[in-house]
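#dry-run=false #mode=assembly
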Amino acid sequence: MGVTLTIDQHIARVVIDRPEALNAMNESVLVQMKQAVDSIQNNENVRVAIFMGGGVKSFVAGADINYMSSMTPLEGEKWGKFGQSVFMAISELRCPTIAVIQGYALGGGTELAISCDLRIASEKACFAQPEVKLGIIPGFGGTQRLTRLIGPGYAKQMIFTGDQFSALQALAMGLVNEVVSHDKLIERVDALAQSIISGSPNGIRLAKEAIEHGLQGSLNKGLQLEAALFGLCFASPEQREGMTAFVEKRKPKF
Ligand code: CO8
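#status=ok
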């Protein structure tokens, strides 16, 4: 058990499966996750990557508390940096990423979910940043990505209280894109993945690049990058195909 990667029909599926610890992440899980992410990045055929937890109860119940319990400050910093690097590799994947949250997304689990582009939650999902209850702070990007995603008010509420938030509360905060019934979760995610796959891979990749870089700088810099990438689209056969298909009243073939 650990992390498995399957790639089928342009869709990569990464499953974190440690049933004995509700999929909590120890070093081995993070190492395997990084290997899976590298394989996806190196595979031009992948157009969507889906991250999910094994079993029905948990997405990921955080970093492994037993593993962290006797760390020294230096070991803690090293562990935090390692987790950050893995989650950065996820957020830097060229293809869109979807976190499928069927149950607990706690601590590092919420941080993993927010490293993905989109989050689809079952009605049974629950979210928390419970680190302060353990005497630590979110260390895999939570203080930064969560604040950027849902704003400082809700991020501080989650981080200062450590309380659990339901899927519907997460939806209201903008933490997830959609909440769907538990038994329809996979169906909905597959439909979403198909919708993404039907678009121009080059267009989607450049749009993601513009959004991600734009978020890190000023509006003006972001707009300059958007214009440059917009121009680049016209160097791709996908632009010709997309527009020709429209004119010919048929579906584009990407
Ligand atoms: N780490 C290790 N083991 C875990 C974890 C975890 N995060 N979560 C669950 N488990 C284990 C339990 O210990 C238990 O093991 P065992 O059967 O051997 O006793 C097994 O999974 C099943 O769990 P429970 O019996 O507790 O199941 P319940 O349904 O009663 O409760 C909960 C489920 C509510 C999810 C509960 O297990 C829980 O509260 N888990 C801890 C959640 C948590 O606090 N997560 C945050 C961890 S800290 C973190 O993620 C920080 C990331 C950044 C670190 C950066 C460092 C620098």
